[in-house]
Records
---
Amino acid sequence: MKRKIFIVFLLAFVITLSVSLAGIKLPVTSRSPLLDFFDNLDISEISREDLLAQRYYTMVYENGKEIMVTGRKIHVGDEYLNANNKLYRVFSVQDYVARARFIREVGAVFSEEPVNFMTVLRQRIFGEVQPVQTEQDNNEDNEDEEEDEDEEDLEPQAQPKRIIGVYHTHNAESYVPTDGTDSINGEGGIHDVGEAFTKALEDKDINVLHSTTLHLPHDRGAYRRSRVTAEKLLEKGPDVIFDVHRDAGPASSYATQIDDEWVTQVHLVVGRQNPNMQTTRQFALDLKNTADDIHPTLVKGIFMARGNYNQDITPTSMLIEVGTHLNSREAAQDGVALFADVVSTYFYGPEDENGEQASPAPNLGPANNGGGGSGNAGGNVTRAAARNAFWMLAVTAVIAVGFFFINTPIATIRAQLTPWFAQTVPYTEKSDLFLEALQEKIRAAALIAAEKTVAFIQAGDGALAPIALKINQIYFIIVDKIGELLNSGDQVTGYWQERIRDFALTVKEKGQQLRNRDKLK
């Protein structure tokens, strides 16, 4: 029976390891309802009451300097990459103010943080992930590419399909200066912004799948409903899908001037609770760096927020926020049209003088099953699979050791371990001597502490005794006074009782006299 159990464990490990190394993904429709429940447990944006009252979330540095203002709820552990590529992490949230610490400056890739036990433990328990790739990884990739250059030339390269999907989870979002309200029950102003994005891409000969499917109302179930829309878009094999939103906050927080024209900035949002977070975060950074080269200040930053945002179904799913409800819709349309230049350059290469794109941009675009750029996500997925394989190997080793101890007689284990214990005897003897001396010191310290404690308690008792006596005396004085008060009350009551009785008798006599007089008449 034990042998069969071991074989089952071994087969399960082999299958899981094969899936990890092959980068196999489950179908996008296989998401657990339990995960949906926890993802939708708390809506990710402020309420409309907060929006109307202009109560926004503000992320500040430790010295109180403002980092950003947003209508999205900020939680401990959220990270933010600002326009200058400075990375901050939130360590406390009180009311609508989130305090963050500066972590590091980020370049072309999210560099690795120092790996230690607590970092690994935090990743495994809370789902926080390490960056997708380091500069060293890039160098190793380049070396591998040079070694396999001849073989790669023989293999067909995946080309972008020039298909982009656009949809809106929160259809009602609108722009007050233009639409007259922040929310329209139906196709709000955000649909016009999505249409402007679509037209700007189509002008570059890109096929855009702009879904206007409604996912109303704007509640915690909107992302669950829009997930169906995203899956339908993915079936058509786009290179990327964008969920277009607008933020909430002061108009100035998104206003920027590009080529002497005031437009709204674009905010990139990455969900921290999804298995593609590493790749999606790097994808967002690539888009921002591309925007910084083409249209500086267009991309406001990257908000790595708590949530999923349906980004688990493909690494190239990006949530963008174009302005706030207080910006004009026209400014948002101009801003998202400039962002179309960024997307086109990133996936399909820069345009020449004739406005044509001769070849895709090199080394850009994380891959996905439905298509994608010619980027480096394959290596990213392989590294993620290798890390998963390492952890599974570790778990398997623990299971194997446990299986060995279960199935091996104690006498055999003792016989095998005896030589090893014999080698450790000199070290254990020294440890015993050290611990014996340390034990005496601990015992002496404990005795001294006990004596001090007893003396302190006795001194406390002595100090409290007079106070207890005073309290006792006061108690009896109060009891006596209350008794005297009650006695005097009884005396007063008795006096008035006699007076009332006399009065009643007098009234009775007077009444009898009056009745007798009436009879005589």
Note: The chain has 13 helices and 15 strands.
---
Amino acid sequence: MEIRGLIEDVPVPALLLQAESEEQTGVLYLKGEGTIGEVAFENGRVCAAESPFVRERIGQRLILEGWVHPADLYQVLRDQENHKNHALGELLAERELLSPERLKETMTLQIEEAVLHLSMWQKGRFAFERRPRRKNSLVTLRPSKILEQKKRLTELKKEIPRNVMEWLEKQPDSFLYHRFQDELEGAFSRAERFEPRIIIVLVEGDSRMRMMVHDELVKHNFNVKGVGNVAKARAQVDRLLEQGYSPIVVTEVDFPRKKREVTLEGLSFMEALHQEHPEIPILVSTSYPISNLRRKILFFGGVFCLVKPDLAVLSSRNFEQVFQAYIRELGYCLDLSIQQYYQQYYQERAEIVRDDLIENLLNARAEVMRLGSRTVEEAKIHEFYYTISDMLVRKGNVDDAVREVLGFLTERFDHVAFFLWGKKYLNGYLGRSGLRADFEEKVGKVSVEHGKISFLADLARQKTVFTGPPPEEAAYRRFLDRFLSVHPAWHLLYPVEVLGKVVALWYADREKETASLQEARILISLVNLISLSLKMDIEDVV
């Protein structure tokens, strides 16, 4: 299967399936618009794949997922230079820095993602080269299985919404959509306040080296602040932290003004900084990478230890090559450190959004419970309406209906009473209270001339409902003292009219607070129901 051609003529999925059916061993090279990808086969199964759109290599993926420490990965990458035939994953597994199961899972995800991206290419060239199998691969995947996954994903994209917001837009409840959108956007806006603002603090005593490294890092889109000694570096770090930046320190160990002394000023600086701010990554560059010094650097909190070019011994012929290699290595270590910052940020962002969603869920649950209790209460009220109407219409028992209403209203008011309104006297008939056991007895003893109480006379003449605090009329206050020990903060009076005459008075109160409008309406509707029954009975007699 040594073929070459255009992807427009033979699609990438067809090439993958053909390699699987013929159990080919080799590499399929794909060239697109300025990009190159490749898929390695072993007996028709995919054992490796690289795509320019899958930017995270296996080492970066392991660091982002928290399975490998950056310092361990950096050391393995350095050792890999002496073991060209060993893959990175093999070295990590051999040194027990990563379990074989975790390594296999990570490699599988990376290969699947790369093959899925490459299978979507529509234009370009391809070439397949046979290569003998070198050794058994840790991961081998069937291309047909990967392509089935792509097909399922394509079908799901057509069936389901792209995100939660699109799903909510399709719902008929626009209020739910806007409310959820506002809450989610609020959570993300709060989380974005913690997004790290990365800045590199370059601590280099040699002004020439500091200027060259600074300029190269700026070319690679790093934000860099250069200082010449540890005192300025510490002040710069403190100032950046106060301004909300996330610094990464790149420092040397020995400084020009200290070279004649034994003390390495950079070590004490990084030790103090690491103790006070362990979250700040510290990269150390030195021209003297002896093993004892490297151990001290890592022990004092250094994340990476890089070999810095020594300007005193480099010639003009090899300077550029050595310096650019140092810049590439430094840039790679900085990328890993920045990814650590963002890994922590995304975790914090997820926690913020999660906490907001949990809070909203609890609030929604409380609201549902409130609405549920309100629904139960309304159902109870409707059931009582039915009971009273059945008692009045079918049984014609007004006295029992009045007693039932008094008992029902006692759950909502502190005192409830029913008075009979005669030509001259207002006489107590029935009373109920959840606060005082002797209230009914006191109500039964009430008998006053309503014509001598201006407030009651006006109420009977106007035939209206009164709600509010008791008036200051002394005669009315004495009337309340007959059946109450404490004047209420709020009360309701409703004169019952039958055939143009007031025949009864309903009373309800709250000692310390005002009743709601809904509670007052319940009382009035029940009283109206009894009054209507009385009118119908009197009209039948007439």
Note: The radius of gyration is 43 Å.
